[in-house]
């Protein structure tokens, strides 16, 4: 099983498209994944999760899994995540608010809440994969990484096509966080 474990606005939608293009049956955004463990994942090869903090549970349930942490330069990520959650989609309700609370501890996260969540996730990832780094790929899609990193990690031939870009935010003006 392949697990995408990036925070929102780090390239998770692009990763999902890339995995699909490589032939993996992929699901993106599973907000209630832990709440529905009875669900059968046999029809899927990859899940790009909405709450990346859940990955240690799935590492135990699915031994030999591969994990892809999509990361992004902190400043551009803060700008994009803030714009996405606190400006363009500020008035969302229901499951959007539920996962924002689970992930960031707030429906409209502050700069400190974004940064704290990012630091906690990076610490968890570094600690978890310390003894088996071969199971983790850190991928910076927004900085141009793509097929040359992803394909060897998944033991697939390198694709001779542009890496997919999905859910790219319109370039917001500089947001004061």
Biggest sheet features: 5 strands, parallel
Gross morphology is: globular
In terms of quaternary structure, the protein is: single chain
Helix content: 25-40%
Which class do the helix and strand fractions yield? alpha/beta
What is the number of beta strands? 5
Distance between the termini: 37 Å
| CATH top level class name of the domain at 2-74 and 121-153 | Alpha Beta
Mean pLDDT: 87
Architecture of the domain at 2-74 and 121-153, according to CATH? 3-Layer(aba) Sandwich
Radius of gyration: 16 Å
User: What order do the SSEs take from the amino end to the carboxyl end, as H and E?
Assistant: EHEEHEHHHEH
Please provide a written account of the structure.
- This protein has 177 residues and is an alpha/beta fold.
- It has a domain at 2-74 and 121-153: Rossmann fold (3-Layer(aba) Sandwich).
- Helices cover 38% and strands 10% of the residues.
- It has 6 helices and 5 strands.
- The chain has helices at 12-21, 55-61, 74-88, 95-104, 111-128, 147-153; strands at 2-4, 26-28, 46-48, 66-70, 136-139.
- The protein has a 5-stranded parallel β-sheet with strand order 2-3-1-4-5, with helices on one face.
- It is globular and about 40 Å long.
- The model has no long low-confidence stretch (mean pLDDT 87).
């Amino acid at each position: 099983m392949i697990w995408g474990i990036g925070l929102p606005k780090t390239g998770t939608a692009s990763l999902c498209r890339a995995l699909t293009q490589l032939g993996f049956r992929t699901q993106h955004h599973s907000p209630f994944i832990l709440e529905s463990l009875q669900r059968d994942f046999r029809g899927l090869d990859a899940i790009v999760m909405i709450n990346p903090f859940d990955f240690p549970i799935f590492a135990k349930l699915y031994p030999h899994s591969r994990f892809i942490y999509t990361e992004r330069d902190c400043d551009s990520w803060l700008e994009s995540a803030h714009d996405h959650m606190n400006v363009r989609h500020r008035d969302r309700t229901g499951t959007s608010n539920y996962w924002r609370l689970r992930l960031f501890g707030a429906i409209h996260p502050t700069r400190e809440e974004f940064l704290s969540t990012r630091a906690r996730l990076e610490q968890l990832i570094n600690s978890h994969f310390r003894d088996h780094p071969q199971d983790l790929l850190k991928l910076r899609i927004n900085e141009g990484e793509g097929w040359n990193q992803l394909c060897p990690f998944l033991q697939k031939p390198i694709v001779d096509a542009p890496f997919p870009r999905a859910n790219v935010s319109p370039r917001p003006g500089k947001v004061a966080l």
